Amino acid sequence: MSTILQGGPHAGPRAASNPVLSIKDLRVSYTTGLGTVNAVDGVSLDIGAGEIFGLAGESGCGKSTIANAVMRLLQAPAKITAGSIDLNQCNVLTLSDEELRRTRWRDMSMVFQSAMNAMNPVMTIGEQIMDVFTTHEKMPKKEARERAAHLLSLVDIKADRLKSYPHQLSGGMRQRVVIAIALALNPSLLIMDEPTTALDVVVQRDIMAQIKELQQSLGFSVLFITHDISLMVELSHRMAVMYAGRLVEVAPSNVLLDDPLHPYTTALMNAFPPLSGPRTELLGLPDAPPTSAGRPSGCSFHPRCPLAMDACRIQDPVLRPAAENHDAACLLVPEFVVPPERLAQ
Amino acid sequence: MSIPSRFETVHGTRAQSLVQVRNLSKDYHSGSFPFRTTVPAVKNVSFDIGQGEIIALVGESGSGKSTIARILARLEQPTSGSLILDGEDIFATQKRKASMAYRGKVQMVFQDPFGSLNPAHRIEHFLVRPLLLHQGPAGTNELRAKVRELIAAVGLDEAMLERYPHQLSGGQRQRVAIARALAAEPEVILADEPTSMLDVSVRIGILNLMRRLRDERGVSMLYITHDLASARYIADKTMVMCAGELVEGGESLELMANPHHPYTRLLLSAVPDARGANRAPGTAGPGGHYTSPAGPSQRVQLTDSHWALDYPSAR
């Protein structure tokens, strides 16, 4: 395995040999009176042990649907029509209710977007954390309280806050508590669905630093979902860009930052005003209305793509290697062929 | 491609101030005797908004920036201080007519386009209503022409008029909210975090629209945000607010190139900047909080337009 990157152990190869999470050709559809929408349309990805994997895309592209599918939280009208989800080599989709109950939180846990709504307003922080221990570990109350205090200290909150109610904490603190609850049973996978979207930049920066620190000390894997690609580049080892239910580009974060291949990734990268240099006009992306059943012919990005050619309207590009450790789904990107001398090795 | 020269001319000719905010303070009270506490949300804030100027007011949650917007929109009464629009002290008169006239001149765009448009009405309704309220009765044809003009001004298709809010994306909804504000033909638009609920990819479109409306119609804007990068992108001047106080102000480019106040630097360091030269991927910068040092502060003038608070005792 060669790494073209200087980064950590996970910055290189596309898939770790023993992935914590392995999604193969996942398809999820929502059936409504107006027709069927393929919210997730054949997504495959692997997340290695101790890897922070970023999933970026706009609202409605299907990224939260993937998260909910992994947690088995999807409800009608959503339906998983094909594919498999393996967590530690165990198929999540075929688990019985009892097995699922044991897997959730112990093996995988989730941090939701709005911390205020994720917590019970009439229970103290302490009760909500202890709930995890008493339910899953059958732990006596006294010990659970000690563990809860320890968990809070992990996220830099004083133990006397155990008696506080959610509304007595600031938005940033609430999100920290939710992260602490998610880490209570030391899961191997933590799913974070836009954990900082409701927070301001200063708090966001703190929380990101905290996640990074906890991940390094505890070693869990992260599936991190956001629409803010600049944030993700700073946090994740490897990331995927999602558009209209499909992955359009997958690469290590710094490769994606320096050398984005898909026009959509480039557009997302260029959507941020810089903090230095001359003030130049940015174009962003044309606004896209929420997608109903209709999917454009050919490449689904072509109506908004600045580089669209005639062929894009007809031919549907597939995700294929575009360079070493770098996949892209665009007709403009030539397929990468492994040099023959490498094959011989 | 550089942005039209308007940026320079605004400062070159020293735009005439349209809105003058003087010594504005707002205290919030909570609890009742004997546990009554007073929280000062805005402390002695003064600034001007010039004709056709975009001013950014930047600060984190709880810094008091939205309180200022709400006072300027007359949704709140200040504890003390004055607000002068076109030479008239607004809080001196309490007459309904005067307040109506004020609302015709100052309009607000709210943060949440999902909450600010009534889901039971079609888009057309949101534009017809302010037209009737602020422009007086008009013939159907005239009204229709004005609605069409408004929807085109914010870059939306006429077909949108027939739709309901849920059929629009967040960016499109925020455009409708801006069109609604424009319907009153205001002199000032107060935009309270108009892009923070939107996808990053469509934020630029809204910012470009705001700047275009300023250029074409000469409407002044107060842009409230916690994102310094976007303030730098559209605002002529930026003011930084910390715990109810303005701590630094100046022309946006100058202020962000040479930030003086520690809080401004903290805000700058918190902006995710993928292209930042010295920030490698995978390294989130240091977090931190800032509290103003105790003791007196003084205002230092750094350049003609750039000033900041300094704390001599903390040195």
What do you see in this structure?
Chain B: It holds the Pfam family ABC_tran. Chain B: GO terms for molecular function: ATP binding. The complex is a heterodimer of chains A (345) and B (315). Chain A is α/β, with parallel strands linked by helices. Chain A has a domain at 18-50 and 57-96 and 221-271 and 295-345: P-loop containing nucleotide triphosphate hydrolases (Rossmann fold, 3-Layer(aba) Sandwich). Chain A is built from 12 helices and 12 strands. In chain A, strand 1 and strand 2 form a beta hairpin. Chain A starts with 20 loop residues before the first strand and ends with a helix. Residues 1-13 of chain A have low confidence and may be disordered. Helices cover 34% and strands 24% of the residues of chain B. Chain B has 10 helices and 12 strands. Chain B has helices spanning 6-12, 65-72, 96-105, 123-135, 140-153, 170-183, 200-217, 228-234, 252-257, 262-270, and strands at residues 17-30, 37-50, 54-58, 80-85, 88-89, 106-109, 188-192, 220-225, 237-242, 245-251, 298-301, 307-310.
Could you report the average pLDDT of chain B, rounded to the nearest whole number?
84
Whole-angstrom Rg of chain B: 20 Å
Widest β-sheet, arrangement of strands of chain A:
6-7-8-3-9-10-12-11
| Uncertain runs of chain B | 1-14, 277-287
Largest interface: A-B, 55 and 56 residues
Task: Tell me the distance between the termini of chain A.
Answer: 11 Å
Comma- or semicolon-separated keywords:
heterodimer; A: about 350 residues; alpha/beta; Rossmann fold; four-stranded antiparallel sheet; 12 strands; B: about 325 residues; eight-stranded mixed sheet
